[in-house]
Structure formats: structure tokens, C-alpha cells
Amino acid sequence: MTAIPADLIEKLRTAHRVAVLTGAGISAESGVPTFRDAQTGLWANYRPEDLATPQAFQANPKLVWEWYAWRRERVAAAQPNPGHHALVTLEQRIPGLTLITQNVDGLHRRAGSRRVLELHGNLFGNKCFRCGKPAETWEDTGEMPPKSNCCRSWLRPDVVWFGEMLPETALRQADASARECEVFLSIGTSTVVYPAAELPFTALRSGAIVVEINPQPTPFSPQANFVLPGPAGVVLPALLAALD
Ligand code: OAD
């Protein structure tokens, strides 16, 4: 079992405002590949950076749409893991907990987390490529991608692509949570993609205790107050058990 420092447990026991940032690492134990993992099988020849961009979509909308359909299928078959479930329990114990995720897989909500800020959108949402209006329904003509009802343009996944702005409200709320929290947990993120990667630094500058949970070191590790080296699916249940 992972040893959790007593002073961290004491701090978490008394904290009213906790902010949690998760990255692809928390879904790794659900079988969802992280961004820094090599792509597998059919998509082995492509890098996310080559597909998750407006330019890639404009150049080959069918290819990008099919890549997202493949990712949706993989994620739909995945299940939340003990790391996701531990964060649901932590949210029940600490009403002032805000969960900020860079993940688009929707696994936190499927696990039961309620206050989730999805900084990079959600795989299962679609919107009009031209005007950005969310699309719940569309005419199934067999075209790939389907056409939007509003502009007869293409539908695209409602996720943040490289070079695109993050949803303003979610980012503002995430920044406020990082500034106001007493404890900040940074879980399963390589802490290299901004502006999300700024959040643990913001929390540190605002006087929070910052904990990093990751089997590997990251650029933030040297500044973390606590580094719990290990998989989220093991460390988070151990953290919860130590709180009891
Ligand atoms: P990365 O793939 O960059 O990093 C995954 C992190 O998870 C690494 O630091 C791993 O060491 C760690 N990790 C792996 N297995 C883990 C486990 N079982 N438990 C805990 N940690 C584990 O993913 P992100 O940091 O989420 O952006 O990437 C950030 C953003 O880069 C993504 O949201 C995406 C990508 O470009 C957009 O799509 C806009």
C-alpha cells in the first residue's frame, strides 16, 4: 500500500477547498491510451498532433472524424477505474472540491463526479465546424462527417484542438479554484500543455499545498510539496483509506 505522509493527511482532513487537476494518466488504468503513449493499430502512423487540429480537419474531415469515432468506441468500452471512483468519494467528503480535467473521455462523469470542469471538451459532444453551435441531432445521410443542420457545414467533435482556445468559462473557474484552494492534487498529467499546466503553479503561488500523483516525474515535480509516485488507481484509494 502506498505510504501517505501524515502531514498531508492532516491537511486534507481539515481542508474545505480542494482543487484536483487530472490528465490522461488517470484513465490509463481504464485502458485509454495517454497522449504520450504510441498510437496503436490502425492509427499507429498518426500522431494526435497531426489529427487534432482545425487544419487537419479542413484537409481531411473524413479521416479526422473516423479517428474520433475510433476513440469514442474505445472510450465507450472503457470503464472508470479505482482512481476515478476515489475522486467521487473525495468529492462527497469535501463539498468544496472542484475537479478540473484535461481529459475528453467523460470517465469522471461516468464514475459519478458532479462538479467537473472539462477544459478540453468532451469526445461525445459535436458542434458545427463553421459556427461552433453544439449539435445534438443531424440528418444521417451516410456522409462522413455528417452535415450540421444550422450551416450545412461539417460536424466536428466538441473538443479543443491544438492551437484552439479553451472554453472561457471552464478555464476561468479552473483558475479561480487553483487560486482559492487549500490543497491542489495534480494527477496523471505530464504538465507540459498550457494553459492547463499553469494551474499547479498558480495553486503553489497562491499558498496551497500541491500534491503530484504520477508514476513518472514531470516538470512540476521539483516544486510539488508532496510527490506520490505511483498509478492513480493505487495511490488515490490509499489516500482515501488514510483519511478514514
Ligand atoms: P500525457 O499523455 O501528456 O501525460 C500522461 C501522464 O500520465 C504522464 O505524466 C504519465 O507519467 C502519467 N501516467 C501514466 N499512467 C498513469 C497512471 N496509471 N496513473 C497516474 N499517472 C499516470 O497526458 P496529459 O498530461 O493529459 O490536449 O496531456 C495534456 C494534453 O496534451 C491533453 O489533454 C491533450 C494533449 O495534447 C488536447 O487534446 C488539447
Which characteristics define this entry?
244 residues, alpha/beta, 6-stranded parallel β-sheet, two-stranded antiparallel ribbon, 36% helix, elongated, binds 2'-O-acetyl adenosine-5-diphosphoribose
Task: Describe the overall structure.
By secondary structure, the chain is α/β, with parallel strands linked by helices. 36% of the residues lie in helices and 16% in strands. The chain is built from ten helices and eight strands. The strands form two sheets. It has a six-stranded parallel beta sheet with strand order 3-2-1-6-7-8, with helices on both faces. Helix 9 links the parallel strand 6 and strand 7. The model has no long low-confidence stretch (mean pLDDT 94). 2'-O-acetyl adenosine-5-diphosphoribose (OAD) binds next to helix 2 and helix 10. The site of 2'-O-acetyl adenosine-5-diphosphoribose (OAD) has 24 residues, from helix 2 and helix 10.
Count of helical segments? 10
SSE string: HEHHHHHEHEEEHEHEEH
Portion of residues within helices: 25-40%
User: What is the percentage of strand-forming residues?
Assistant: 15-25%
Largest sheet: 6 strands, parallel
Measured between the Cα atoms of the first and last residue, the distance is 15 Å
Low-confidence stretches: none
Mean pLDDT: 94
